[in-house]
Amino acid sequence: MFSTSRPAKILGLLALSALLAASFAISRSARHTELTVLMEPDGTGVWRGIIAGFNDAHPETPVRLVEGPPSTDTREDLYSTAFLAGRGGYDIVYCDVVWVPKFAAAGWLLDLTDRLSPAARIDFLPADIEGGSYDGRLYRIPAFTDAGLLYYRSDLVRAPETFDDLARDAAEYKTGDRAGYLWQGKQYEGLITNYLEILWGFGGDWISSDRRVLLDSPEAVQALRFLQSSIETISPRGVVTYSEEETRNLFQSGRGVFLRNWFYVWPLLGREGSAVQGKAAFVPMVRAAAGKHAAALGGWGFSISRFSSNEDAAWEFVEFATRPEQLMQLYSKAGRIPARKSLVPQEFQEIVRNATPRPRIPEYAKASDILQRWLSAALAGLVSPEEAIRNAARETRAVLGG
Amino acid sequence: MRKGNLWFIPSLLLIGAMLLYPAVRTFALSFYRMDLATSFHPDFAGLSNFARLVLDSRFHASLRMTTLFTATTVCIEFAAGLALALCVDEWVRGRNVVRTILLVPWTLPTAVIAVLWAWMFNDQYGILNALLLRTGILQSPVSWLGDPTAAFWALVIADVWKTTPFVFLILLAGLQGIPHDLYEAIEIDGGGPWVKFRRITWPFLARFVFVALVFRIIQAFSVFDLVYVMTGGGPGGTTETLSMYAYQTMMRYLDFGYASALSTATVVILALTAAVLYWLLLRRHEDLA
After folding, report:
1. Distance between CA B65 and CA B158 in Å, rounded?
2. At what angle do helices A324-334 and A46-57 cross, to 10 degrees?
3. Is the pLDDT assigned to residue A7 strictly greater than 60?
4. The complex's ipTM?
5. CB contact at 8 A, A340 and A133
6. Rounded distance, CA A285 to CA A294, Å?
7. Gap between the Cα atoms of A42 and A66, Å rounded
8. Between chains, do B146 and A240 touch, taking CB under 8 Å as contact?
9. Per-residue pLDDT tens for A267-299?
């Protein structure tokens, strides 16, 4: 048995509390100058490299990267929680394009309009600038852009142009082990982007920029019916449970003719070990005669928290991280498409030009959930497409008050 | 105050800060409007959040789903847990080993289990479809999580698999506390197995049944992670639970007043259920308890 004398205990306790106090003092003094940013896990190490480059040049205001969970929704919640707590949260916001209206309307983001000079602004992609704006003010500087596109098996089919081409070729080249058309039908945000691209392709729309609900149109029903009729004809039954990765895995292992997905899939398809290496190509999403080749705009950029105690240093980082040199690193190391006109690779230009932001309203999450639920209900056969669209339009109007 | 009671103060402070304060604040907030439109300032709104509950079809749907899920899983888990406990109680050699093995599912994190089950129910890669197709029971793959009824049962199966061990463990503890000479006394009086169960086992077990049921009902009624990972509330919102709805309202819609009303409603329903259970199970056995 150990026995410790009383003075020794007291001494130990004192030492411990001194240590604690010292560590608090250190972290307090560090907090004055250190900037923090929450991002996805940095698998390729490209962000760590960019941040190290900034920290070398700005040793007095270094940026600390907090690698958060890979799920976008979870990081959105983490940012919301930090904002609600006020000071002491993250200084820099690594911001998804769909977060901007909500965060800006809540007053959590710094207005960056006057910090970005018109000359600097002109090189960024207009859709990405639009996506980062709310109420005419700019809150987010885009870093890389993303858009939905249609991959196809170039060894089997020719590049499709219309919905009919897609449906016909998918039906012809599907086999017992190869799906015709792979898309994301799970009840989540991805379903919205899939549906919107088809809705726009038929010439319809969801919510106008002046907050009017345009959903109850024949085109909206047509678009939903297109997705619904693909199930069990050219798409597997399970498509209503798929998100991006399930469909990417199927296509990459040679088990799909067409795949709707994002830019990130492209480098993976050409990689060693891919069953479709050299056998895949992509086009903008197909359309009907009345519609356009549409792509839902995704992409990430940087905003600054209103609660940051070091706005100017945070801006220096945002400006640094979105410079061409850094965005080119992001492209070469992580396959991310730079959100600058001058840097978009030739083959992606047409799709990037077609990319359209989703409705920029503070109530976006709620409007999206309403549409997700009704689309998913129609795809599961619980209601007819007409009824789903009618109900979604009605509920969305109730939320937007118009 | 006795000196020993002083030691309670830290834990009381902790409970007060971590449990009592949030609970009281949530209850208070449910009478306020606090959202984006009020710039997160609480505006007193009386009972309007609760009036909204009455008319909210999404609340009704999630309440129905949560109740159905709770009733189904708790019934199955109770029956299976009791059967297992009665078996293992009779077992003398190797009981500890069996008990440990049976506990494994309960010790794993729910989110991990949910991912596991989601893969097993996957229509292309899932083991369930592979088995059913190979044995010829199915002709074409079924999308388990894409159909409302199948998705519900998939969630029930995953939950039963995970939490039956909890019921089993509590009931086994109860069984092992029953003195064996009581059974011998019944045997002398010529009573059969049913009389033994009715006169000895059940009255002794009632308190444990109450504990197991109350814990399970509370956990099942507030289920979140399992459903969030496996179906995300889909298809068509049919598997959305109350706590998922409250979470979405709070974190994604930033509607704190209404989210608090949803949470308050959940707590009230649970408290009433626990009271009814107490009345049903323990009132008559109070002399034994």
Report:
1. 16
2. 150
3. no
4. 0.84
5. no
6. 6
7. 10
8. yes
9. 999 999 999 999 999 999 999 998 999 999 999
Region A75-90 average pLDDT: 92
Considering the domain boundaries, does residue B59 fall inside one? yes
In whole angstroms, give the CA distance from residue A125 to residue A117.
15
For residue B255, tell me if it sits in a domain: yes
Q: At what angle do helices B256-281 and B48-55 cross, to 10 degrees?
A: 70
Asked if A378's CB is within 8 angstroms of B237's CB, the reply is no
> Could you say which DSSP state residue A162 is in?
B
Residues from chain B that touch A241, judged by Cβ atoms under 8 A, are 122-123, 143, 145-146, 231, 234-235
What's the number of CA atoms in the CB half-sphere (13 Å) around residue A47? Answer: 21
A383 contacts B236? CB cut-off 8 A: yes
Q: What average pLDDT is seen over chain A?
A: 92
Q: Which residues of A touch B143 (CB under 8 A)?
A: 236-241
Question: So what's the pLDDT on residue B141?
Answer: 85
Integer Cα distance of A376 and B235 in angstroms:
5
Predicted pLDDT at B288:
47
Cα–Cα distances (Å) from A17 to A13, A20, A23, B14, in that order, read: 6, 5, 10, 21
**Rounded Cα gap, residues B258 and B263, in angstroms:** 9
pLDDT higher than 60, residue A206: yes
Q: What is the pLDDT of residue A221?
A: 98
Residues of A in contact with B232 (CB under 8 A): 186-188
Instruction: Say yes or no to pLDDT of B145 above 80.
Output: yes
Percent of chain A, pLDDT > 70? 92
Q: Going from the N-terminus, what domains does chain A have, and what CATH number goes with each? A: 33-146+298-356 (3.40.190.10), 148-296+360-400 (3.40.190.10)
Total domains in the fold of chain B: 1
Q: Cα–Cα distance between A25 and A47 in angstroms, integer?
A: 29
Cα nearest neighbour of A241 on chain B = B146
Checking if the pLDDT of A249 tops 70, the result is yes
- Domain with B221, as residue range(s), is 46-97+163-285
Q: Are B262 and B282 in contact (CB under 8 A)?
A: no
Out of A293-307, B142-156, B179-193, least confident range: B179-193
Which residue's entry shows tokens 């009733």? B71
Q: What is the CATH number of the domain that holds B250?
A: 1.10.3720.10
Q: Is residue B138 part of a domain?
A: no
Listed residue (A23, A188, A10, A53) closest to B228, CA to CA: A188
Give domain status of residue B155, yes or no.
no
For residue A77, the chain B residues in CB contact (below 8 A) are: 251-252
C-beta atoms of A376 and B124 within 8 A: no
Q: Quickly state the pLDDT bin for A392 (edges 50, 70, 90).
A: very high
Q: Please report the beta strands in chain B, taking only residues with DSSP state E, as ranges in sequence order.
A: 32-33, 43-44
A1 pLDDT above the threshold of 60: no
Angle, CA of A199, A201 and A205, to the nearest 5°? 40
pLDDT of B285:
58
